[in-house]
């Protein structure tokens, strides 16, 4: 089941072109009126489950963003209303897509402050099963952080950088940065390590695992280190990279990645669970969780 959740967080990295909608930017109408009571009920179940787990685990910015958005337990949010609130704060919008979209379409949206969100929701009997990012992952997980000006700039820069990285043939390296920040990032706050990554914030089990389980490594975020590091697509992460504060991402939004790619090209890739002597180790994991499950695929 976790495998599908991880796939859901991939966003555009593995999209096909089988179901291309009519519009060239792959957007569709959300079709809010067509949601059934059962679909709203799935949202409510997921919303309430995460709302119980996230206090004391999600970062302050996530909590604040959620409070300032028209998001509640009763109904799947309306993207137009979300976009109204978001655009006033950070200039972002939420646009509906049918599922994963091709890389260049995804980057083009981000570069223009449009967040593509799956319009569908998972089935009631598959609460932890997803093949593509649905409205709960995309809206509950991502949109609160887009209310934060630093994250807003960072994700736009990722969109611009993604188009360039694809052209340079280094998309794999950049995708790891997105993965270990936007999807699975942790940040230090006054009262401990907190979640800001959407892949964690939208997953009940990883919400607890990422900040409390002794198994994973928690290492200080370092750009070149992260670019070299494979990640788990089929399970919890073996390593979480931790920011000192969200402002660290501002630097990433403004530096030229060209020289960084050149340096990383000469360095070896690293397995997800490895700890280097040069790492800033916040907590060295026991590795027990993944050892018990055996080795699985990573990217
Ligand atoms: Fe995501």
TrEMBL record:
Record Pfam families: Biopterin_H
Domain annotation Biopterin-dependent aromatic amino acid hydroxylase family profile: ranges: 1-299
Gene Ontology MF: a single term: phenylalanine 4-monooxygenase activity
Cofactor: Fe(2+)
Pathway(s) annotated for this protein in UniProt: Amino-acid degradation; L-phenylalanine degradation; acetoacetate and fumarate from L-phenylalanine: step 1/6
Keyword Iron in annotation: yes
Catalytic activity line of the entry: (6R)-L-erythro-5,6,7,8-tetrahydrobiopterin + L-phenylalanine + O2 = (4aS,6R)-4a-hydroxy-L-erythro-5,6,7,8-tetrahydrobiopterin + L-tyrosine
Entry-linked InterPro entries: ArAA_hydroxylase, ArAA_hydroxylase_Fe/CU_BS, ArAA_hydroxylase_sf, Aro-AA_hydroxylase_C_sf, Aromatic-AA_hydroxylase_C, Phe-4-hydroxylase_mono
Alphabetic keyword roster: Iron, Metal-binding, Monooxygenase, Oxidoreductase, Phenylalanine catabolism
EC assignment: 1.14.16.1
Domain of life: Bacteria
Family annotation (CDD domains): pro_PheOH (cd03348)
UniProt keyword Metal-binding present: yes
PROSITE patterns (alphabetical): BH4_AAA_HYDROXYL_1, BH4_AAA_HYDROXYL_2
Membership in a protein family: Belongs to the biopterin-dependent aromatic amino acid hydroxylase family.
Protein name: Phenylalanine-4-hydroxylase
Taxonomic source organism: Variovorax ureilyticus
Lineage of the organism: Bacteria, Pseudomonadati, Pseudomonadota, Betaproteobacteria, Burkholderiales
Gene name, Swiss-Prot/TrEMBL: phhA
